[in-house]
Amino acid sequence: MTSAAPKPPRLPAFADVDPGETGDLAALDLDGRAEDLGFADQDAAGVDLEDTVYTGCTFRRVRLAGAALTRAAFTDCRIAELQAPTLEAPDSAWTNTALTGARIGSADLAGASLRATVFDGGKLDFVNLRHARLRDVELRGLVLGDLDLSGARLERVRFSDCRIDTLTVDQARMTDVDLRGAELRAISGLSGLAGATIDEFQLQDLAPALAAQLGLRVG
Fold this sequence. Notes:
Blueprint: E1 21-22, H1 28-31, E2 33-35, E3 37-40, E4 53-55, E5 58-60, E6 73-75, E7 78-80, E8 83-88, E9 93-95, E10 98-108, E11 113-128, E12 133-148, E13 153-160, E14 162-168, E15 173-178, E16 182-184, E17 187-188, E18 196-197, H2 200-214
Parallel strand pairs: 1-3, 2-4, 3-5, 4-6, 5-7, 6-9, 7-10, 8-10, 9-11, 10-11, 11-12, 12-13, 12-14, 13-15, 14-16, 14-17, 15-18
């Protein structure tokens, strides 16, 4: 029996954004807002950027080692080649935003809201999306070490050409989540996959874990 295909994410065209005037990330801890500004080759290591708001901004080769981005909001932004050994952005909001070529060691996005957003290419060693809300999101061409989606809500989320070493989905809630484009090496919390779509080869790989969870004996 063939199930209905998952609904794809509803994404904008992501046309290039005019970077406009050059902004200074280090100065935003005072003002807190940036609109239609370009940030390139800047180092905001350790800068307090909590509650900052970015609209229509571009970021290129920005370094954010240890920068505090709690509750920061990004709308209609383009972010390329972001570099951060640690990215502290719990409860942040990402809307109509594209991130390309990011290299992040540990990303704390717990409780974040991601809507109409694309992650395209890059490597992230650990991503904490516990209790986050993802709607109309695509992750493509990514190498992900540990991806923790425990307690997260996902709707119309698609993985394309991704590798995920460990996927944790305890108590996640999924609707129209397409995992067929992900190489899944290990999964924790199999019941959290309810509502996701996988292919027959992924199902074969998951069979031993499913049997163990259900207490099945195969012989």
